[in-house]
Amino acid sequence: MSLEITGKLIEKLPVQEGTSKAGNSWRKQEFVIETADQYPRKICANLWADKIDMLDQMTVGDTVKMSFDLESRNFNGRWYTDVRAWKLEKAGDANVATAAPTPVATDLPETPTISEFPGDPLTATDDVNDLPF
Q1: Is residue 29 part of a domain?
Q2: 3-class DSSP assignment, residue 110
Q3: pLDDT value of residue 95
Q4: 42: CB partners within 8 A, 6+ apart
Q5: Which residues contact 61 (CB under 8 A, 6 or more apart)?
Q6: For the chain, does the N or the C end have fewer beta carbons within 10 angstroms?
Q7: Which CATH number goes with the domain that contains 83?
Q8: Rounded Cα–Cα distance for residues 68 and 34 (Å)
């Protein structure tokens, strides 16, 4: 499953390093982005190994687009979920649509009044607020 989300980078956490039981070295770095929804959400995601270099190109406050996978695992009867980013890039200005001002037409005729329509059931002498209910 591959997902994508855009948000503002609000925090970079320190790089974590270690060695697995098999003797392989590993590195990961976590970061937090905040969505721009009506109710903003903070999401902590991580990058592994050489993908950490993508985060080095970003600064806190940048709007970023993150492609990620969700992965859950069971450990001692509890489930843990990872948001594992595999692509991180600055969101382009094309994502933020800026609409040009709509031109106002000045040569339109005035709106006719009710009394200008002959044979109209509503005339100036009728009581407009006389509703049947």
Answers
A1: yes
A2: coil
A3: 42
A4: 10, 32, 33, 34
A5: 8, 9, 10
A6: C
A7: 2.40.50.140
A8: 15
Mode of pairing for the β-strands spanning 3-19 and 25-35: antiparallel
Instruction: Please indicate, yes or no, if residue 15 is contained in any of the structural domains.
Output: yes
Phi and psi at residue 52, to the nearest 5° = -60, -30
Query: What is residue 86's three-state secondary structure?
Result: strand
Q: Which residue range forms the structural domain that includes residue 12?
A: 3-92
Q: Kindly state whether residue 112 falls inside one of the protein's structural domains.
A: no
pLDDT tens track for 44-65: 999 999 899 999 889 999 999 9
Q: Is residue 64 part of a domain?
A: yes
The per-residue pLDDT for 107 is 58
The structural domain count of the chain equals 1
Which are the contacts of 34, defined by CB distance < 8 A and separation ≥ 6?
A: 7, 8, 10, 40, 41, 42, 43
Q: Evaluate if residue 102 carries a pLDDT over 50.
A: no
- Per the CB < 8 A criterion, the answer to whether 30 and 42 are in contact is no
Nearest to 46 by CA among 38, 57, 54: 54
Lookup: tokens for 73: 């695992």
pTM beyond 0.90, yes or no: no
Nearest to 64 by CA among 86, 38, 88: 88
